[in-house]
Amino acid sequence: MNAQQSHTPVTVLGLGAMGRAIAGAIHRGGHPTTVWNRSAGRADDLVAQGVTLAPTAAEAVRASPVVVVCLLDDTSVRDTLAALVDPLAGRLVINVTTVTPKRARETAAWAAEHGIEYLDGAIMAIPEMIGLPVASLLYSGSQAAFDTHRGLLELLGGARWFGADAGLASLYDLALLGSMYSMFAGFAYGAALVGSEGVPATEFAELAAPWLTAMTGGLTGHAEYFDSADYTAETQSLDFNKAAVDTIAEAGHDQGIRTEVIAAVQHLIDHQIAAGHGKESFARIIEAIRPPATGGGGREGR
Ligand SMILES: NC(=O)c1ccc[n+]([C@@H]2O[C@H](COP(=O)([O-])OP(=O)(O)OC[C@H]3O[C@@H](n4cnc5c(N)ncnc54)[C@H](OP(=O)(O)O)[C@@H]3O)[C@@H](O)[C@H]2O)c1
């Protein structure tokens, strides 16, 4: 028996940059691989490597018990899968398209209704990282599917299952991406500030990268405040940080750059100071982000 015969056949729907990388990694891992894409011409390299291009999505689905879906967004997933109810019945869908937790849960419910096993995935990688140890993929939904197909999933990168609630993988994904985008926006503010005096951003990056890396050492300390909801300040208070952040914004105004990025931080600080918490830790800004207190646990008194 050759490698292809011993591996589960897999179909990949969607051959954008990410879908192509996924199909290539699965094929190289020894799985007979069938692909489909809405537009023609995306599968040429894969076909040259031995991947099968199906003429229709339905035929692609019928070729494999496992169907990986990697489309643009939730709407494209819904539109595509809605037309595939019959061929998908009894098969496993692994949807690695970026969606919200709510959308993932809705798709999981739709799948259950139609006898389709469902595993939701979130990709913490760019296409070039797929198949390398540095790639990390998050999963939630069917644990049986995750356990049974772990070898397949690990062809794409590190694989971790977060729970039976299909929304959890995207919840973590979007939380990590939200942190990342805010950090990049902060870096852009800093680069614009020094750039107002002609400093190249590349020169600034040489300072910012080690600075931000060192600052990530403080994340766990912040998290301990967040989890306890006890912000009794043993570190710098909101009042202290207000002075610093207001100065950063004033410098931006003086240098003629836009200050929305830092204004968002000012807003969070001011919100908590106005509520009477100026002597408490800066970490308390999370209480300006969390939903209003429901009166439970350590979240009272926001
Ligand atoms: N690229 C990344 O770095 C990265 C990283 C993490 C997660 N992701 C996620 O992976 C998913 C795919 O990303 P990508 O980079 O491959 O995107 P992409 O290159 O823009 O490809 C989008 C794919 O979706 C298809 N599509 C769009 N609308 C469709 C519709 N209405 N019906 C059927 N097919 C449709 C496109 O088909 P056509 O060829 O016909 O247009 C194409 O195959 C996204 O959810 C993205 O957020 C990407």
Key descriptive features of the protein:
single chain; 302 residues; N-(1-d-carboxylethyl)-l-norvaline Dehydrogenase, domain 2; 2 domains; 8-stranded mixed sheet; 8 strands; disordered C terminus; binds NADP nicotinamide-adenine-dinucleotide phosphate; 6PGD_dom2
Explain how this protein is built.
Belongs to the HIBADH-related family. InterPro entries: 6PGD_dom2, 6PGDH_NADP-bd, HIBADH-related, HIBADH-related_NP60_sf, NAD(P)-bd_dom_sf, RedAm-like_C. This is Oxidoreductase. Residues 10-158 form the 6-phosphogluconate dehydrogenase NADP-binding domain. Pfam families: NAD_binding_2 (PF03446), RedAm-like_C (PF21761). The chain has 302 residues and is of the alpha/beta class. It has two domains: 3-165, NAD(P)-binding Rossmann-like Domain (Rossmann fold, 3-Layer(aba) Sandwich); 196-288, N-(1-d-carboxylethyl)-l-norvaline Dehydrogenase, domain 2, CATH 1.10.1040.10. The chain has 14 helices and eight strands. The protein has helices at 3-6, 17-28, 44-49, 57-62, 74-82, 85-88, 101-113, 143-148, 150-153, 168-195, 201-215, 219-228, 238-255, 260-274; strands at 10-13, 33-36, 52-53, 66-69, 92-95, 117-124, 136-141, 158-161. It has an eight-stranded mixed beta sheet with strand order 3-2-1-4-5-6-7-8, sandwiched between helices. Helix 10 crosses helix 11 and helix 13 (238-255) packs antiparallel against helix 14. The radius of gyration is 24 Å and the shape is elongated. The termini are far apart. 34% of the residues are buried. Bound molecules: NADP nicotinamide-adenine-dinucleotide phosphate. NADP nicotinamide-adenine-dinucleotide phosphate (NAP) is lined by residues 14-19, 37-39, 42, 70-73, 76, 79-80, 97-98, 123, 126-127.
